[in-house]
Amino acid sequence: MFEARLVQSSILKKILEAIKDLLNEATFECSASGIQLQAMDNSHVSLVSLNLRCDGFDKYRCDRNLSMGINLASMTKIMKCAANDDVMTMKAQDNADTVTFVFESPNQEKVSDYEMKLMNLDQEQLGIPETDYSCTIRIPSAEFARICRDLSQFGESMTISCTKEGVKFSTAGDIGSANIKLAQTYNVDKEEEAIIIDMQEPVSLNFACRYLNSFTKATPLSPQVQLSMSSDVPLVVEYKIGDVGYIRYYLAPKIEEEDS
Fold it and tell me: With CB atoms counted within 10 Å of each terminal CB, which end of the chain scores lower, N or C?
């Protein structure tokens, strides 16, 4: 038996919004420790990794490991039927070919349940190597979303450069060029508004704006985003999901030789 209960169904809604542009379908791997999802996006350029710990749920039970292949568009339709303050429970039997979503209104006056067919997806678990990154940058997630949106109007890719002075986002295209610099800020009263840079060595890498903009769909999940960069390895964009877990996006840097 698998059962996972969240007091705020809005968390799962936001998670789906954060991944459905990149993935059409995905396997939710449920185990005693929680729910994990790992999948390459439809064009095999970026990777999405989601981890929801069992202790982040109000009630969590998973007697046997369960792989649930889910069509994310279908799940989004079901989640649209839930009010944001509904209590949501996902349930499935051990060898089930369906998963049931139960939504309860806070006053328990309305209970609705939706059953969804599961898919058989062949998805290999991708080993993500542990990497010590040259730079980690923590910035307000809304600020990062705005930078990605603004710069994507100028060019198709943007360069993220990290130095001791701060972090610089830059792009160039047919209209001209754009640069946004953020200096490190320490003594901010609100921690989520701080810009914190932890740098071992300077890094400058170029990434496709289209994917970065897709990643920022996770902005509602967290007030801060962390970017981890090293030369020649994928960028990691991580959003913490409250006390429940995290969502991470991995994106390989663009190789400069493409222009020739």
Answer: C
